[in-house]
Amino acid sequence: MFHVEPKQSFRGRVIAISNQKGGVGKTTTVVNVAAFAGLAGWKTLVIDHDPQANASSVLLPQPAPQNLVTVYQGQIPLPTNEENVWLVPATSGLLDDELKLTRQDQGRHALRQKVLGWQQQFDLILIDCPPSLSALSTNALVASNFLLLPLQAEYFAMEGLGQLLAYVDDLQQQGADLQILGIVLTMYDKNNTMAVQVDNDLRLHFKHKVFQTAIPRDGILATAPSHGQSILSYDPLSAGSIAYAALTREVLRGLE
Hints:
The protein has ten helices and seven strands. With 256 residues, it is of the alpha/beta class.
């Protein structure tokens, strides 16, 4: 049985899961951390803020409602296939919303205004960001208390990490209430020399900001979404499931 310490008195912690590089396990991390947090009794909301809508395709019961709109157009949270997990789904309309946000003086605060009400209803809010430093990503970061960075254990990932952290620093200097919750290595192969080197370099430089848990390269993690399931639902005893259970414990403890 998956177990974490009881929730503290706070409510509505908001975590943006972001990396400007695609294919690093960002959505996989959102879906699976949400599933394990829900199992642990945390009422969890996922906001799919990526026009590709990958998190929505996994979490929404089939068939999806026909009248979906975006978070900016008033979409309310919908129940999902996972226990204690709700979803604000993404649609292609997010691309139109992004253009509007860039033209508004306070456009970067639009998502924050939506999230404020949900913080009273949910213990945990996870925002799946697009793989770019766009107006949508900026909105997600400004709306969040914490940033979780999935990072594939390869050389070029380090360059993108530096750019994102510099951007976060700029937002903090402009008043954003945003902390780095941690960096999680994904698709990690302990037998790969480069992966081990990246791991060592990260821990040397960022120390406790790197989660102890690394997510292994596991084909079952890639298969589960095609069945519309988290790894918890699809194969709870797989290596990927065990790793995401451990990561979720670290994430929830880090919020304290």
